[in-house]
Every structure is written in C-alpha cells, then in structure tokens.
Write a structure and sequence with these properties.
2 copies of one chain form a homodimer.
Chain A lengths: L3 H22 L3 H4 L5 H19 L18 H8 L3 H7 L4 E7 L6 H9 L4 E4 L15 E4 L24 E2 H6 L7 H13 L3 H5 L4 H4 L6 H9 L4 H17 L2 H17 L2 E9 L15 H21 L8 E9 L4 H17 L4 E7 L12 H14 L9 E2 L8 H11 L4 E4 L7 H9 L3 E4 L1 H6 L11 H6 L4 E3 L13 H9 L6 H13 L5 H24 L1 H6 L8
Parallel strand pairs in A: 1-5, 5-6, 6-7, 8-9, 9-10, 10-11
Antiparallel strand pairs in A: 2-3, 2-4
C-alpha cells in the first residue's frame, strides 16, 4: 500500500515538472503571447486533434508507391498524401501574412508557365538529339524566344521526335503538336518539359549525399571542375531548372503575365504581402525578342503590374487580401568585389526612382561553394555611406547566411558577417543553432529568420522535417517567418505546404504558433510602419474569420474516436 | 583607389569580427581550457591539416561501390574508406579515457563471438527451413546451448543446407563443416551468421524512414501490431541482433571469455575505464547448459574477470592502461511500476555486496514507443530513501533520455524527468538542443551528455554526422563524452570510429577538443575521487606520449601540398 508521504512527493514532483516545462517553453511565440481567446483555444484544440488523428490514419495507411509514409516525411514523396489531408485543406484557408523569401524566376507554377510559353509564337525549343523512349529522361529541352524574322519555316519544321531531327529550333507550339504519340503526344511533350522545370523524388533523394561531396574545403574552381566531372546532382539539377525558366520568363509578354500570375496564386493561398528576390543583372527582352530592356524598364513593368493588381483588389473590395509586393535586389556570390560595388550603386539608383519598390539588398548563390560575405566586406561596409551620399532612405541588408549544416566553414561563418553588417533578417540561418552568442544577438536585435522548410529538405540539408532546426528556433524564442524559396521547383503554391510540414513534424507547434509566425511575417517585413499597421489590422480580420471557419467543423473533429493516446 | 577611411574601417570590422567569433566559441572545451602546450599546438595543426588533405583526396576519390563519399557520411557505407585513413590510424592510438555508454551484449566483435561459440560443443543452431541461395538472405539462424544429454546424434545430423533439412537442431561446429559449398561452405556459414548479428547498409539506409513511421502518437500495443504487420525494419533488425547474442553470450563458458575479450579490445583501442549497462533481469546458464545462475553468481564472474585482468596489467606494468570497469544496472521500459520497484530493491542488494562494481541505475528500450520516465515516477522518487534505509552509498541515476528527433513527445520529455530526478549524466539527449532551459540546467549542474554518434546515425536519428547535434553541444559548452552504444552491431571496436566521425564532420573540432572529451569522460565517470585522480594522471602520461607520436610525422604532413584552400 502507498504511504501518504510518497503520494504527496509524487504530486509535488509533478508540480515542479509542470513549472519546468512552462519555463522551458516560455520563449515560444504561442506561450509568450496574451492568453488565447475562446475561438483561438477551440481552433488550437481542433487542429491538434486533427493532426493526431491524421498521423494515425492518413499517415499510417499503406500506399503502393510510398513504402513508409509519416508526417513530415520527404516532401516530394509525401506530397500526394498531403493533398488528401483535411488539415492541409484547412491550412490553405489560413491567412499567412507575408511571403518574405522567394526568388523571382522560381515563384510561379510550372504548368501555368508552360501554358504561357505555348501561347507565344516567339517561343521555340530544341534538344541535343532526337528524342526517343530511351533518352527522353536524360535529354533536356532548350528554349529560346526568336525574333519573327528568324522563325524557322513552319512547313520545314521537323518534330523533336522525328527520325530526321537534328538539333534544330522548332516552334514550341508545333513541337508539342508533332510530339510522337509513342512518347505521349502533346501530353508527353508537357511532361518532358515539366520534368526539366522541377525536381523529382529520385533526383532529390537518390542523390541526397552529393550536397556534402563538394561542401568541405573546396575552391570555386574545384567546385566547377567537380560539377563537370563527378557531377553534383541535386544542386546541379536545382541550378538547371533556372536555366529553363530564364529562357521563358525573361520575355516581356510572358514576364508580365508570369509576375501577375504568381502574385495571384500566392494571394489565393492567403499571402497578403510579398518580398521577391531578383538579380540586379536580370535580363528581359521586349516583345520583338530583340531589344533588351533596361533595369529601369523592367521595374516600370513590375510597378505597373502591382498598381493594376492593387486597383483591381480595391475595386472588388478585397483590399485586405493584397497589401502589395517589394523587390529585394540580389547579386551573385561569384562576382568580383568591383562588380558588387557597381551593383550597389545600381541598387541605390533604383531606390531613388522606385523608393516604394525596393525592400533591401542580398547576395545569392550556394554558400557552401561560392564567395563568403567577408570577401565583399569593403563594398558592403561602404554601402550605408553611398546611400547617404545619394540621399536615399536606408536600403537594409537581408542576407542569406548559414544555409549549410556545417560548422566553422565559410558558409557557416557568413552568419557572423550577416549580423555584424546589420542584416535585418537572415535567409535560412540553418546552422544558427551551433552559435550560442549569435542566437542571443538575433533575439536582442530582433533579427527574424527566414526559414524555408521544404527547400532545405529537398536540397538535403536535412533528411526530414523532424531534424529541421525550426522547432528549436521556436523554443529558443527566435523570430521566425516561413517561406517557400523556389516553390516552382518543388511544385508548391504559396506557403501552405511549408506551413503544413512544420505543423505536422512537431508535437508542440499548433495553429496558434503558426498564427504568430504569420503576424511576425508582417512585423518583420520591410513594409513602412503605416503599411504594417494596415496589414496587421487586415490580417487580424481574416484570422478571426479563419477561426470561425475552423470552429465550423470543430465538434465533428473533436468527437472523432481517438485511436492514438499513449496507454 | 581606396580611401584610407575604408581601409581603416575594414580593419576595424575584421577586429570586431574576430572578437565576436571568439565570444561565440568561448564555451567550447578547446577554447575555455588553459593555453595549448607547444606539443599540443603542433598536434592540433598536424591533425587539422591531415583532415583537410584527406577530405580532398581520400574522400574525393571515386569508389566503384560508393557513389558519393564524403567525410562523416553514413558510417556503414563509408567504413571501408575510413579504414584507409591515416587520420583514423592515428586516432586509434589516442588515449580515449572512459567508455561510458555501452550495452553488455553488444560490446564485443561479432566474428570473435562466433569463434567463441564454435569452440563450445553445447552451441547448436537451427533455422525455419532448409537454406538455399534464394532464402539465405531472409532466413536467420536460431542458436541454443543444449545440455549434453540433449545433443542430437552427430551421425544423424542433417546439414542446414541439405534437401532433407527440417528445422532440427545441429551442432554449430557441424553445421559449419557441412554448410553447402554452393553457399560458400564454412565461410558461407560464417557470413550467414554474422549477417544476423550486424546491421548492413541496405538494412539501415534502405529503410531509414521507418524509425519515424511509428514514432508519433502511438501506444505500445499499436507499436507491437505495427511490427507484426507493416514492419519496422531498422529497430526490428536492431532488436533481432540482441536475440542472437543472447543465445550465445548467456552461457558461462562463453560469457566469461566474451566479457574478457571486449574489455581487452576496448583497452587495445585506448579506453582505460568502462561503464557497462546490463539488465538486472540478465540470465546466464552454467556450463551444463541447464542450471541458471543467480544475479549474484553473474556478478561474481564479472568481479572475478576484472580482478584477473587488473592483476595481469599490473604484472605487465601496464596499470595506466586499465583502471577498471563498473556496471550500470538497467531495467526495460516495458515493465510494470511494481516490477521496476522490485528491481530497484535488487539493485540495492547488489550494491551492498558489490559496492565497487555498481555505477548506477538506468531504464532502457526505445523511448519513442515504450514507457516514459514519468510513468515510473513513484518508484524512482522512492529510490533514494530505499538506499538510505538499506544503508548503501548513493546509486546515481544515469538515464537514457531524449533519444529522439521529435519535440514535445514522451521521448523528448524524458529529458525533463531525467534532470528533475537528478540524473548524473544523460544517455543520448539527442533532442536537448530544443530545450533552452534544459541546456542551461545541464551546464549548471554539470550533467554530462553521453553522445553515441554512430549509433544515432545508423538508427537514423540523423542522416549523416553533419546534422548530428554534437557540434552544437560543444559550442554551447555542454559536457560531452563520446561512446559506442552497441559497437558489435555496427562492427566497431572501442571508440576510434566514433571519435573519427565527430572529428571529420566538423571544421571546428580538432584533436584538442577530442582530448578534452577524453578527460571529461574520466571526470564525469562514476569512479571514486581517488580512482579519478589516478585515471587522470595515467591519461595525461599517455596523452603526452600520443602528442610525441603525432609530432613524429608532423613535418611530413605539414609540408604536403595543400590542394584545398578557399581562393
């Protein structure tokens, strides 16, 4: 029989335990915020219940093509299961706040982009050799927008799948029509092109070690030679998709519509504000497929599309759904110090003409093998003074840093420079957990972390979402925003997929935490104080609506039989 | 031309940067210790240089059977490359201090264990059906030590590979002799048995998702049914190897020699003190293969082997190489609360009789699916009082906790209980980084973390060493000891492989950090203060010798052409 002493002792112990757990979680956004409203408390309960239930049902079922599914598994393999998730459907309705980390050319949707291309007679395609059943997996398409006077004679055009085909250009429309029925006809053409625009599971997971191969102690020269020799599949493939986009997107008639479309798809997904990373060296050709636009002309188009869209939403009384978009000017990490300095001047000139459009400056390209931030210390340190001399408002740094799982490498040490150079947010900061002092500084200075869960997993920084540092970021009280990086390549739309992966791979994270993340994505955006205020008010309205929607089927979910408790 | 202002500014910046890096790394053992001696500084330089060189040569070469090798890659795949590493050879000579986390039955070497079994006529084997080329991969051996009066008649024994074989017992020696030459003869028999004692790459990496399959929200009942149905390969295979060891090791004539052998192999590898986890419910049968030994008799054998070994080393003037070994009593996480309380009493009884042998108490079994520590709160909270009532010295808790990549699950929350219950060290603590408050407490209370790098990777908590939290543990100033957990299953000897994986997967970690880890493995062991003092002095002597050894080929290594600098 149990003595009353031990009963008391156990009770005391459990009290101490609860206190410790509370202390340990105190820094989480969903714990440090004001108490939940009844509607929020209900939504939290409903979503947690649904998550638990789907883990034991949807994710424990057997799927012929997916040996061992689990919530938070490799995204490209698990996507088909995610699409069947009620939880996913609910999240797609959630107001997400801002999308703060995405690269212009990879923010659309591949099929929509292909449709745009097929509408343009100027778009032509060729490939290195005749396509057959045996080489269609390995021979990629090459696109080019040709001026009318260079169109190949339609009658003489030979299909890419024809025995006589010889690396000649053919109109994309015609190439599609004439595509060999044995290879799927027009549908087969579409699949062939889309495969070159996206990463498939075997590409990502069959080669998931290679990211590490060239990671350690390596010069840019050696990296290039490695790509040429042993190959570097996942990043090689990743880079190659941009090659395809570039040839299609950078043509004014497509460019304009593409931009409009990806904005609309993000808005559709509950995103109300977007910051888009775009290279300052970005090239676009006019409708004649000859004349190259100036950067100024490119930005006039962007500005124009945004003004149109804003007007349309206003007209439809949907102002709350779209606050706007800004551009983060980027430069490639392979450029010389001199070129970077020139580009910084270009960035300032743009800020002068489009003050409302320019959100900040960043350097891009794979950190593990390209130049570290410290290499550009001189121009980057000059930047602030250059802005003052030019009399423009501050252009904040919004650096990629620590997009690596190494420690003490140049890529990892970019975190020191990003912070010392005064970055307002950090892109990825995947290796931040290894740096006690930097965690502290990010918290003190409220430097938000742009976490791109699916991107990190597909590019093999982590084998699944469970090992992704984002849960630790939450618990350490770091400000986190979730983003999609290059959604087109992993065939995502907006932010729902990334929100879903983070939600289902953590026991602690619920809908309230995601709500705080959405709010922070507005708070830590580069919107002006007034714009932020307006965006937050609009978000709150939509959030309250969302909570009602969740409550709508709350009873049904909560009454469902629980198959999953630990006994 | 550059203004002197900017030149000055850059210099200032680099100074601030160096200061920040120093601050950020200040908590590392290799930074917070006293300055390096000249011999240490040289060794550090030599080892770093060798690591860099081998990353660019040994690890960048092409291997027919290993598509994309890299330092720190999946251990079972990379082992053959590691064996060719000069760095590995050097580490094997390093004094490692203590091995503090290993499970008795899996601490030997599979081939040696098989040899021991083949020397014993009592050891018999059978399998479910006749072995053929098509089923030899899937039909495992079953061993049993038979009493002499139950030996099957030798003449009538049928080979496991014979057409007439029918699940009958046959002497292991004979089974080996008669093994069908088509299946490799005696060598084929050995390979077949060893495959059942170890995990191979395809088992570990072909099924690396399955650990997560049953991880979330699941009852023990459901876990069992899942194993029975869809399977749970990696942990299932992991558990199955213990089934094989048990039938061989738990026979006195083998048990005694097996224990002696694994102690010697660890000592040979530079380990001078060992704490071994052993179930209190451990069963051993006497030489007659009938009589079961009492726990007391088992411990008399262990005590006796240790006394012999100590005497032998003293006689050979090698006292510095072997300080001794102690047992951490363990109980399985599936037992009832009542059984655990009974076992705690048994542990105290043992401590009374073998005070020098008992190092502490722990609970074992996969945390993700078995009972959490809180389930046993009552008996565990009583334990201290029980010890005082029995008048024995304190038996510290040395709990496994957080051997999971989840957050907020029972397995992850075991960390709260391990710490609140006063554990002196934590086994694995793989999920500790997610807990800011617990990191703090582990540092304040000097709770050392028993990190088992290869075990965590083979059991798929992490896809490679780069994502293992150990580098972060170092940087956060946590006390870390490295251990091998179940070296027999991954065919490791001693600690060199684990030291190697940690060294090559981090840019920051060098030989000095590993030296501090070795010292801490003595400092945070359960040795008495006097024993610790003796062990530390002995270790220092051997460390100084090791530094001389490294210096021996220092010049050669340092003069080697550097192919790897970042330019």
């Amino acid at each position: 029989m149990r003595s009353s002493t031990i009963v008391h002792e156990v009770a005391e112990y459990k009290k101490r335990r609860d206190e410790l757990i509370t202390q340990d979680r105190a820094l989480r956004a969903d714990h440090s915020r004001e108490p939940l409203s009844p509607a929020e408390a209900l939504a939290e309960e409903v979503i947690r219940k649904l998550k638990t239930t789907e883990a034991a049902t949807l994710w424990s079922a057997d799927y012929p093509s997916i040996p061992h599914p689990f919530p938070g598994m490799e995204f490209l393999t698990g996507r088909s299961i995610i699409m069947q998730s009620k939880l996913f459907e609910i999240l797609s309705k959630m107001p997400k706040g801002s999308l703060l980390h995405g690269h212009f050319d990879a923010m659309g949707q591949a099929p929509a982009l292909l449709d745009l291309a097929l509408k343009q007679p100027a778009v032509h395609v060729r490939c290195a050799e005749r396509l057959t059943a045996s080489n269609i997996q390995t021979v990629p398409p090459e696109f080019l927008c040709l001026p009318e006077d260079m169109y190949p004679d339609l009658a003489g055009s030979v299909s890419l799948t024809d025995a006589n085909y010889q690396h000649t250009w053919i109109s994309a429309q015609l190439a599609r029509e004439l595509f060999d029925p044995q290879l799927g006809g027009p549908g087969g053409f579409d699949r062939w092109v889309l495969a070159a625009m996206t990463i498939n599971p075997s590409e990502a997971y069959g080669t998931h070690n290679t990211v590490k191969k060239v990671m350690l102690h390596i010069s840019v020269q050696r990296f290039r030679s490695l790509i040429a020799t042993v190959g570097f599949q996942i990043w090689e493939k990743f880079a190659s998709t941009f090659g395809v986009y570039e040839r299609i997107v950078h043509y004014v008639p497509i460019f304009r519509e593409y931009f409009r479309q990806f904005l609309l798809s993000a808005i559709e997904d509950g995103v109300s504000y977007i910051e888009i990373r775009m290279n300052l060296t970005y090239k676009v050709v006019a409708a004649d497929a000859k004349t190259e636009l100036s950067t100024r002309e490119i930005f006039l188009i962007l500005d124009n599309v945004l003004k149109e869209l804003t007007a349309e939403f206003k007209q439809q009384g949907r102002e709350d759904e779209f606050i706007g978009a800004k551009i983060i000017i980027t430069a490639f990490r392979l450029f010389s110090v001199e070129i970077i300095e020139t580009l910084l001047h270009g960035c300032i000139a743009l800020k002068k003409e489009f003050p409302h459009l320019i959100a900040g400056f960043d350097l891009v390209g794979q950190e593990d093998v390209l130049q570290p931030l410290i290499y550009y210390a001189e121009p980057l340190l000059k930047f602030r003074q250059m802005q003052q001399d030019a009399g423009v408002d501050e252009i904040p740094f919004l650096f990629h840093a620590g997009e690596t799982f190494t420690d003490g490498t140049e890529a990892d040490m970019n975190l020191y420079d990003a912070i010392l150079l005064g970055t307002k947010r950090i892109g990825h900061a995947f290796s931040l957990l290894k740096h006690p002092k930097l965690i502290e500084m990010c918290k003190e200075r409220e430097i938000a972390i742009e976490v791109c869960p699916i991107s990190n997993e597909v590019l093999r920084l982590t084998s699944s979402m469970h090992m992704h540092p984002v849960s630790a970021f939450f618990n350490h009280g770091l400000r986190v925003v979730l983003s999609s990086d290059d959604p087109c390549i992993w065939q995502c739309v907006g932010l729902t997929f990334d929100f879903y992966q983070v939600l289902v791979s953590s026991e602690l994270t619920g809908i309230i935490q995601l709500g705080e993340v959405a709010k922070d994505s507005i708070k830590y955006s580069m919107l002006s104080p007034d714009e932020k205020q307006r965006a937050l008010v609009a978000w709150q309205k939509r959030w309250d609506k969302f909570l009602e929607y969740v409550a709508g089927f709350g009873r049904e979910v909560l009454s469902a039989h629980d198959t999953t408790s630990f006994t």
